[in-house]
Amino acid sequence: MHNYLDFEKPVADLEGQIIELKKIEGGEDAVDVTDEIQRLEKRSRDALADLYRKLTPWQKTQVARHPDRPHCLDYIKRLVTDFVPLAGDRFYAEDYAIISGFGRLDGQPIAVVGQEKGSDTQSRLKHNFGMARPEGYRKAVRVMELAERFGIPVLTLVDTAGAYPGIGAEERGQAEAIARSTEACLNLKVPMVSLVIGEGGSGGAIAIATANRVLMLEHAIYSVISPEAGASILWRDATRARDVAQAMKITAQDLKGFGVIDAIVEEPVGGIHRSPAEGIDKAADEVRGAFAELASLDGEALRRQRREKFLAIGRNL
C-alpha cells in the first residue's frame, strides 16, 4: 500500500477499489472480476499520469519529500560496488547526515558524497534528517581532496532541507564549513557530477553541488530557502508556503530554463517512489552520460568550466 499524498486521492480511491476486488476474486466465494480489475487499473494509471503531468510547484515539493522516495544510501547500494565509507572530519566528529567514501561505478573508481535523510524514525534521527553539521561538510572536503589526489571522479547526491541551523553547528563554524566545501568543489581538477534526488536546500545543498554537471530528478526541488521558511520571513505565516513555492521557481523545469541545472532526469510515472529501481537506473544512465562528456577535459579545463558555469548563472536572464 502506497503512502498517498493529498492530491493523489482520486488514484488512492481507484487503487483501493482494485484491492477490494482482488480480495473478492481470491476469496471463498470467488467471482471473476478480472475485466473490472483491468478497467480500474487502466483508469488508475491514466489518472496518475494525468496528475503528474500537471503538478504544481507545491505538489512537486510534496513529492520531493515523499517518505518512500529513495535516498542516498539506496542509490549507493544499487549503483556503486565495493563502497567503502570514510568517517570523521579529522577535526571534531563524525556526521551521519553526509555519507562519503569510495567505490566503483561500472568497475571504475568513483568518490561519492551524499546527504542521507533516513528511511524510518530511527535512521532519520541518526542521520539528522539529512541536515549536515560543519563536520559533515569538512568530511566532504576531505573526501573530495583525496579524490583529486588520486584522480578519481566525484559524484554527489543532493537531498537536504538545508544545513543544520543549531547553536552548536553555528559555534563550530557552519557558514565557514559550507564556504570551504563550495570552494573545494570549485577547485577540483577531476570530473564532478551532482544529482539532486529530492530536496536541494540552500547552502546545505550548494556546498556539495557546485559541479561540472548538475542533474536533477523530474520531481525534485532546488531552492535558496524552503517554501515554509520563505513564507515565515515574507508574511510571518508558514501556511503560505504554497505561494512561495510558486513564486521561487524551484522546480527542475524552471531551473533548467534558467541554466541553474544542466539536465532533468525523467522519473517513473507517479514519481520515483513508486518504482525506485527503475528510477535509480534511469538516473545512473544520465550520470554515466555526464561523466562521459567530461572525460576528454584535463584538470585545468574541468576547473575552468565549473567556475564559468556558475559565474554565468543569472547573467542572461
UniProtKB/TrEMBL annotation:
<protein>
    <recommendedName>
        <fullName>Acetyl-coenzyme A carboxylase carboxyl transferase subunit alpha</fullName>
        <ecNumber>2.1.3.15</ecNumber>
    </recommendedName>
</protein>
<dbReference type="GO" id="GO:0016743">
    <property type="term" value="F:carboxyl- or carbamoyltransferase activity"/>
</dbReference>
<keyword id="KW-0444">Lipid biosynthesis</keyword>
<dbReference type="InterPro" id="IPR001095">
    <property type="entry name" value="Acetyl_CoA_COase_a_su"/>
</dbReference>
<dbReference type="InterPro" id="IPR029045">
    <property type="entry name" value="ClpP/crotonase-like_dom_sf"/>
</dbReference>
<dbReference type="GO" id="GO:0005524">
    <property type="term" value="F:ATP binding"/>
</dbReference>
<dbReference type="GO" id="GO:0009317">
    <property type="term" value="C:acetyl-CoA carboxylase complex"/>
</dbReference>
<comment type="pathway">
    <text>Lipid metabolism; malonyl-CoA biosynthesis; malonyl-CoA from acetyl-CoA: step 1/1.</text>
</comment>
<keyword id="KW-0808">Transferase</keyword>
<keyword id="KW-0443">Lipid metabolism</keyword>
<comment type="function">
    <text>Component of the acetyl coenzyme A carboxylase (ACC) complex. First, biotin carboxylase catalyzes the carboxylation of biotin on its carrier protein (BCCP) and then the CO(2) group is transferred by the carboxyltransferase to acetyl-CoA to form malonyl-CoA.</text>
</comment>
<keyword id="KW-0067">ATP-binding</keyword>
<keyword id="KW-0276">Fatty acid metabolism</keyword>
<dbReference type="GO" id="GO:0006633">
    <property type="term" value="P:fatty acid biosynthetic process"/>
</dbReference>
<dbReference type="GO" id="GO:0003989">
    <property type="term" value="F:acetyl-CoA carboxylase activity"/>
</dbReference>
<keyword id="KW-0547">Nucleotide-binding</keyword>
<comment type="similarity">
    <text>Belongs to the AccA family.</text>
</comment>
<keyword id="KW-0436">Ligase</keyword>
<dbReference type="InterPro" id="IPR011763">
    <property type="entry name" value="COA_CT_C"/>
</dbReference>
<comment type="subunit">
    <text>Acetyl-CoA carboxylase is a heterohexamer composed of biotin carboxyl carrier protein (AccB), biotin carboxylase (AccC) and two subunits each of ACCase subunit alpha (AccA) and ACCase subunit beta (AccD).</text>
</comment>
<keyword id="KW-0963">Cytoplasm</keyword>
<dbReference type="GO" id="GO:2001295">
    <property type="term" value="P:malonyl-CoA biosynthetic process"/>
</dbReference>
<keyword id="KW-0275">Fatty acid biosynthesis</keyword>
<feature type="domain" description="CoA carboxyltransferase C-terminal">
    <location>
        <begin position="40"/>
        <end position="308"/>
    </location>
</feature>
<dbReference type="Pfam" id="PF03255">
    <property type="entry name" value="ACCA"/>
</dbReference>
